[in-house]
Amino acid sequence: MSILAAVNVDVPFTLPIVDYNAIAPLLILLGAGVISVLVEALLPRGSRRFIQLFIVFGALVASLAWIFTITGVRVVTAEGAIAIDGPALVMQAAILVLAILGALLMAERSVDPSGDAFAARASALPGSEDEKQFTARGYLQTEVWPLFLFAVSGMVLFVSANDLLLMFVALEVMSLPLYLLAGMARRRRLLSQEAALKYFLLGAFSSAFFIYGVALVYGYAASTKLPAIASVLTAKPGQTSLALIGMALILVGLLFKVAAVPFHQWTPDVYQGAPTAVTGFMAATVKIAAFGALMRVLYVAFGGMRWDWVPMLWIIAILTMLVGSVIAISQSDIKRMLAYSSIAQAGFILVGVIAASPAGLAGALFYLIAYGFTTIGAFAVISLVRDESGEATNLSKWAGLGRKSPLMGGVFALFMLGLAGIPLTSGFIGKFSVFVAAVASGDTWLVIVAVVASLIAAFFYVRVIVVMFLTEPGPQTASVEVPSVFTTIALAAGATVTLVLGILPQPVLELVSNAGLFIK
Amino acid sequence: MTPWLTILALVPLVGSVIVALLPGSRPTLAKQFTLAVSLITLALTILMALQFNGASTEPFQFVESYSWIPAFGISYSVGVDGIGLVLIALAATLVPIVVIAGWRDVDANSGGSVKGYFALILALETLMIWVFAATDLFMFYVFFEAMLIPVYFMIGRYGGPQRSYAAVKFLMYSLLGGLFMLASMIGLYVVSAQVTGQGTFDYLSLVGLEMDPTAERLLFLGFFFAFAIKAPLWPFHTWLPDAASAAKPGTAVLLIGVLDKVGTFGMIRYCLPIFPAASEFYAPVVIGMALVGIFYGAYVALNQNDMKRLFAYSSMSHFGFIALGIFVFTTIAQSGSMVYMVAHGLSTAALFLTAGFLMQRANGSSLISDFGGVNKAAPVLAGFFMFAALSSLALPGLVSFVGEFMVLLGTFQRYLIVGGVATLGIVITAAYVLRLYQKSMTGPLAPKLVGMPDLSGREILALMPIVVLTLVLGLFPAPILNVINPAVDRVMTTIGATDPTPTVSSDGSGQ
């Protein structure tokens, strides 16, 4: 029997049913990304910046506004490939708001005396004659914007992908621009390119794990759609070894993106080497996107294998919290320290994921939002602390900074307290929510480990405050540049949200718990 | 109904913000403003205390409750019983005293800005009032932890040479306790959700919650651990001597005099009523820790050459008495503990402030060996020092005697031997206090101290209220006891403890 015979030629081709209203936020971003590429290709350099910023902010705001009009939508569309549900909408909105703040940081041009934070020509070899010339001529590029828009589109798709293949596509749409963005720092080009290359190689490696896992799961379930996998798991409960291996490989790919130990090796180098604005944007948004996808895969497709993945994630969560917190203590570079901090935070969020309950999902969402705002604010401050060689990221240059600039020092101290989870900051409510969910699900010992890890983590956050406020400023102390309105808005938003979500968290808690569960 | 407690907490908070916004070039204005705010708070506290009904059968008075985070059953709920009222009054009394005494403690070259120090004091006062007034466990926890931040900066920015180390040690120790309490608190919330279907942090709903004995013991340990670090009880005390010796005298007064009381307050407010069976189960351990603390603290104090460290160890010994009084489960001992908490706050204030005045006159040295013969050069200072020392060793007629005597009496009622052993602690206390006085105040005048001025009017003004309160409450403790006793009776009823019947019958004939 030929292959053709299997295809029923009599059935007419039907168009897939797509709910354009539900996926309009994604389409706006993708469309804007395409226009942005055209602007970069066709318009003269001088007029690009204004138009690019207009497109970027216009698209982000329009996409966000559209989400507010479809808050009640719960639909699986595009032939089951995309699920727009409560958690997806919450995460999409959070990603967009944080992307706006990230874009504000990236648009800053008045801090670095040589123009902006991005390479005059990213393709020029670091240290080459070409590069020197381009920099000397003061070239300023706007090529980051199309990349940025595609990265955001990828994230927005990632959290709503209901099909493993589409999820893989979204993963790549999100990651590829980020690899490039990481390599585009204007200063310390080698470090930046090293970061990009590392991120790309390890990221490609983890993507391979992911796609291999998808193949195995397809072999088991004959479908890549998450609900279909779940129903096959219920139908054939005894023969899950193929699904188990496939799931483990998919988890490797996703845990790489959330920077969980032992898949965290890229994080410190990339956080340190990437332009600070990109680091802030990436740290805040990728975490949300990756956890969104992780939870959707675990809850929707592999909910039936809970007893297989819970022990695995227990170990990973414990390792992530402890390794992240302990190694952060010995860091002398503030960006590397925040990288390990982001690893530790991923561990705390995993505690909520492991709870595998509505409360756990809501807690993890709240934590992600709180963490995103605090992190982006912290990186905004870092981008302003400079000396003559550029950003002063070594902690020794932060000595006495809080006394030199009390306002900026105070704001950064607030971010550190927020990340440490001290009460009256958003970080505390986040930790509290996931811990409550975990204890209610019976993971009390995991919470006790988390509590110990919180203490270790508090130590290095507090150490920054010690350096800033309890040491005398010296000649090597960096100074804080006065930013333009762009960074100021991002900074103010980060600080406000950190404080308000710590004191009056109820509206956001309601939002995340009313979001309900992933649609199945 | 006037929202007394909220107003009381907000006045210093608003004051603190205003002080922080004052121009840094006018430090005197910041001080005057701080003093005014703290006096207004004190006046409000007195007004509120006058309306407190000692005979009321309600568990809490001046109650306010607003929904705060309904998602977790959390509300902003405040209210005081006699114990809370007395401790708020203690805080409100000590703050203006500390402000007056610390008028010259901070100046432009002491590291941080002047207004910053005073703004932190007011912020701390707000948090202290909320901690003692909270009737929602979550709210208590939030302020229990938030209190660390101003103290951390007060020690870390304005303290002595070891300030950074001491501040971080203080913070890490307190966070350690706090985080275990957080875990326990979450456990308690989950238990309350399982039992009642709706998780809550409301104190009165948590009291009497039925729970599994093992869970109860574990939850008790989380809370007790936090409070034992805070109080501090042996062996969780090692942060205190460092913090006390690095801190400014005023900071040390607020830290040991009021903040550490949150630990013992927490034991009687939260540990006992919420976990009665576990409290009874662990009582022998706690009593053992308290006894070791009494002797260990006193013994180390006996060999201290640094005055501030001596006071810290002496406080640890006194906290042993307070914890002992709480965990022997007799009415008189628990009331005694509460009186002792107030007395200890006053005597600590007197000791640290006079020692602070003394140290200022000796280039900041706090070593006993640097002093001698102060009573010849500065008789008034020596006199106040004597008074503070006697108050610390619980001389009859002073309020500390009332507290100590009641604790011992209550202990004897239940455990004869424990009472006997604890009594011996008094002897060592007398020894180190008198040795301190003898070495520093009597004998030939130390050469470095020649020409030292006696206390100024401001310094006497700061110390006088403490002296008056110590004497008045020592001779006539009824005002405190009247408000404390109903609260203690309620605790005893809640935990189902009864006082042992006297072994001597009323006609005196014995058994």
Describe this structure in a few short sentences.
The complex is a heterodimer of chains A (520) and B (511). Chain A is mainly α.
SSE blueprint:
The complex is a heterodimer of chains A (520) and B (511).
Chain A (H helix, E strand, L loop, with lengths): L2 H4 L13 H23 L2 H25 L5 E3 L4 E3 L1 H21 L22 H8 L7 H15 L5 H19 L6 H33 L4 H10 L5 H18 L7 H8 L2 H26 L4 H24 L4 H22 L2 H27 E3 L2 E2 L9 H4 L1 H15 L5 H15 L3 H26 L9 E2 L4 H19 L2 H9 L6
Antiparallel strand pairs in A: 1-2, 3-4, 3-5
Helix pairs in contact in A: 2-3, 2-6, 3-4, 4-6, 4-12, 4-15, 4-20, 6-7, 6-12, 7-8, 7-12, 8-9, 8-10, 8-11, 9-12, 10-12, 11-12, 11-14, 12-14, 12-15, 13-14, 13-19, 14-15, 14-18, 14-19, 15-17, 15-18, 15-20, 15-21, 17-19, 17-20, 18-19, 18-20
Chain B lengths: L3 H18 L5 H24 L10 E9 L4 E7 L1 H20 L12 H20 L3 H10 L1 H11 L4 H34 L6 H4 L6 H18 L8 H8 L2 H11 L1 H14 L1 H27 L4 H21 L3 H30 L13 H4 L1 H14 L6 H16 L1 H26 L15 H19 L2 H18 L16
Antiparallel strand pairs in B: 1-2
